[in-house]
Amino acid sequence: MSESKLGRRELPITVIDSGKSVAEEAHSHAHDHNDEGPRSLGQAAPSFLFVGDTAISEADIAREMQFHRAMTPEKSRADAARALVVRELLRREVERLGLQGDVQDAGSEAMEEACTRLLLEREVENRVPTLEDCQRYYAQNPERFHAPDRIRVRHILLGAAVDDVSGRFNAREQAEKLITELKLQPHLFTDFALRHSDCPSKDDGGELGWLERGQATPEFDRQVFRLREGLAAFPVESRWGYHVVCVDAVESGEELAFDQVRQRISDYLELQVRQRELQQYLQGLQERYEVRGLDAIEAGAA
């Protein structure tokens, strides 16, 4: 997208997903360390990013990148640049409206943070979803509102460290032998658990009880929730070793009533509306203050 179209392009922000308020997030990474950052032969770091007549240097972006981890340095740089542009847009609007004089006592907040909070409270509408909005969303997304699936599991752990190649090979081989025997004599599971398992559950016959998704080690969790009732035909591998697994029962999560999830739906919809309103507000600020250079930075991260 050309720079001439930047005023009509949405500027993505991620502050709504943060646990902090928008005002806090907008200024939480602001620093005054002009003596830090990349330098070349004693010269100040170059600037390729501008909001109006304000330059955002590569040193500024480099300092901000530590707060925007990503899969590539280019993506981290783009995220940092975008965050700095948002911060500068908000700062300029606070200055234009003269809000500094309206903040009587910032308390523990930094003045810039308090001004930004006041700006967003005044300029961005905070709409609470109606009962009808929540009911409509509930009716349109029934698959999202169920109690967690759960399974009742017994296991026998043949333990081996991750870096013990020989030990893990032997553990798998032993697990396969136990499965072969248990197919013929399933009643021996409790006895085998007591004799062979390296898990404290062996004293209870390998019983793990009812498990919901996310309660067990991730790799074990992913595999056992794909199993049907009965003895698994193969050993289940985890960081702890190999498991002989028997699924005794499977229960699909029951549908949750609207009253059980109404507050969750309301919070979610309010968050979505707030995000949309902020996007529109920032887009309006971009039309007021020219932003240059961000397109090129984001194109390099694509």
Describe this structure in words.
The chain has helices at residues 22-27, 58-65, 73-97, 111-123, 131-140, 165-184, 189-196, 218-224, 258-288, 294-301; strands spanning 47-51, 54-57, 150-159, 207-212, 230-231, 236-238, 241-251, 291-292. Residues 1-10, 12-19 and 31-40 have low confidence and may be disordered. It has 2 domains: 3-130 and 273-301, no CATH class; 150-251, Chitinase A, domain 3. By secondary structure, the chain is an alpha+beta fold. Helix 3 crosses helix 4 (111-123) and helix 5 (131-140) packs across helix 9 (258-288). The two termini are 12 Å apart. The longest helix is centred in the last third of the chain and has 31 residues, at 258-288. The strands form 2 sheets. Strands 3, 4, 5, 6 and 7 form a 5-stranded antiparallel β-sheet that branches. Strands 2-1-8 form a 3-stranded antiparallel β-sheet. Strand 1 and strand 2 (54-57) form a beta hairpin.
